Amino acid sequence: MDKKLMTIDLNSQILIEKAEKDGVETMYDRKNGFKSQCGFGLQGTCCRICGMGPCRISPKTPRGLCGADEHTIVGRNFARMVAGGTAAHSDHARDIAHTLALSSRDGNYKIRDEKKLIELAIDWGVETECRDIYDIAHEVAEIGLMEFGKPHGVSIFLKNAPKVRQEIWKTIGIEPRAIDREIATVMHSTHIGCSADIDSLINLSLRTSMADGWQGSMIGTRFSDIMFGTPMPTQTEANLGVLEENKVNIILHGHEPTLSEMIVLAADDPELLALAKEMGAEGINLSGMCCTGNEITMRHGVKIAGDFHQQELALVTGAVEAMIVDVQCIFPALAYVADCYHTKFITTSPKAKITGSTYMQFSEENAYKDAKKIVKEAVLNFKNRKPEKVLIPEFKSPATVGYSIDAILSQLDRVVNFNVDKTGTVKPLIDCLKSGVIRGVAAVVGCNNAKSVTNKNHVTIMKELIKNDILVVSTGCGAQAAAKFGLMDKGAKKLCGKGLATVCELVDIPPVLHMGSCVDISRIVDIVSECAKYLDVDMCDIPAVGIAPEWMSEKAVAIGTYVVASGIDTYLGIAPPVTGSKKAVEILTNGLKKEVGAAFTINENPDELAAIIIDDIEKKRDHFEK
Ligand code: BF8
Fold first, then answer.
1. How many distinct helices (H) and strands (E) make up the chain?
2. Does ipTM exceed 0.95?
3. Domains of the chain: total
4. Which residue range(s) make up the domain with 379?
5. At what angle do helices 270-278 and 367-380 cross, to 10 degrees?
């Protein structure tokens, strides 16, 4: 296949061509190299759980050596994907919690949102009167850390859900206990000789995913806001055109804001700025990729270089002095691509060491010093840039980002209530939904996947939804697709139906709202929960849906599962590896509806998927309007 047809991003197409000329291999070459992918893997029917395997299930060999059938094998593989995703998100949250425990008035990490900290402290029964804010922070951090391994009880966040939803979770036994415990339980139950019942395996998957959504991710988002500030609307630009020819270009890629926040500070250090000048550069230009990109654009307006599929192509510009990474979604191939140019590929976390990279460990205890050292390495590399190898493609789009719940509600309050009656609640949002000006809310989230044309599913679906008056909120690489294609620009209201266009005009928002990183899907779950509580209904009664048009990671599987467990229908543009078990497909796409009031829908055609979503939202409205 022509590699340029594998993405709809024009910058990417230009750089795919340049990579070819430079003799550099990228994901798009490797995709062409894999003529066909393993059918057993695609369907989830390959079992590698014990040393007797791999056992591959087919009509001729319907059972593995231990007798496991396709339902057991698919169920176990699915549960392990959920556990992998939950582990990644929650370990991110654990690091943030440890950092909050380290916070101090004169240290690297400070409390930026005292109000949010106090609210959480009160909610968790922490004494707040006449206490130093840092003592409160440390006690809150300690409670957060206990969520990972407490021996008794269930997630501290469940009580925030509508009562009827809590009852459902209790009845079907999916209230998550401690985060690490749920992950360990899945690893145990899916070991050879344990769970061999598809219903039970999916039930275990739901409970583990709940530890991701209603525990780890909530800790990650809340504690990040407390330390780094709750995002508010800010202006930025997106796509590789944000790189600057005359500056030291540093791209931050990965996930945890503990590193990126320090790099943002260090990039402003007068000493390093002077060094950049000495090297012949006009300054330091920071930009972000993947979820780290989302974290720093939401809080500081740092420009978005691109998404998951653009990480190699960013280096192909020949204009990047350093790609600084921490954990998750980092191609090992970056070491090879960086080698073809002058770029320093700097890994920083003992959890994600990569052969061929420059390893510069970052520790929270030494945060600013470490960050400064890393930025210095990038600045010193400017002199090694080879101008003849530089090509910065020109495309970039303006975007307004930073829509935390707090930002959305205050914006709606300001305009819908004309500043007269500030509710501080979801009432204005409910009013828009109830009146039908906005038909529903869709969270279009997640990754890029080489199984589909990069960005096509995201952009097609988002455009179709806003055209039909459905407000879109987005996180992860989906948010970056929206930003790159101008859908987070306020001018995109011209692509909306009349109702949504009016709301965008009145409220002064774009039709696709950037709500953060993938961990921040907790913000989306929170707002649906608040709407349900306001109306005294269940979360499944709100015309809100989750969509992952190009998902690829285990984290996305965990997210989709907890979103469904929360009563929110979820739509996938890529089939997950479960199709080898009819029973698994039936439970995930239908059976769960009876249990949790929501299920998955899978359709790999983005136009068809958009039509199904719009139809389902309208059906949900019948009930909602009553
Ligand atoms: O956690 S959307 S490719 S960057 S996994 Fe990764 Fe997927 Fe991007 Fe963030 Ni989320």
1. 26, 16
2. yes
3. 3
4. 240-389
5. 10
Question: Among 199, 228, 257, which residue terminates a domain?
Answer: 228
Among 215, 227, 214, residue whose Cα is nearest residue 147: 215
Q: Establish whether residue 291 lines the binding site of ligand 1, counting it when its CB lies within 6 angstroms of any ligand atom.
A: yes
Predicted TM-score of the model (pTM): 0.97
| 289 within ligand 1 shell (Cβ under 6 A) | no
Angle at 234 between CA 230 and CA 237, to 5 degrees: 130
Amino acid at 478: G
Domain boundary at 389, 410, 441, which? 389
Using one digit for the tens of pLDDT, what is the confidence trace for 31-55? 999 988 999 999 999 999 999 999 9
CATH code of the domain containing 494 = 3.40.50.2030
CATH classification of the domain holding 212: 1.20.1270.30
pLDDT digits (tens, 9 = 90+) for 449-491: 999 999 999 999 999 999 999 999 999 999 999 999 999 999 9
Ligand 1 lined by 329 (C-beta under 6 Å): yes
Residue pair 477/294 in contact (Cβ under 8 Å)? The answer is no
Does residue 253 register a pLDDT over 90?
A: yes
Helices 476-484 and 290-300 sit at what angle, rounded to 10 degrees?
Answer: 70
The Cα 583–Cα 70 span in angstroms is 9
Q: Counting atoms of ligand 1 from 1, which one is nearest the CA of 519? A: 1
Dmax (CA) for the chain in angstroms is 72
Q: How far is the CA of 422 from the centre of ligand 1 (A)?
A: 36
Whether residue 362 is contained in a domain is answered as: yes
Q: Is residue 141 part of a domain?
A: yes
CA dist., res. 421 & res. 132, Å (int):
33
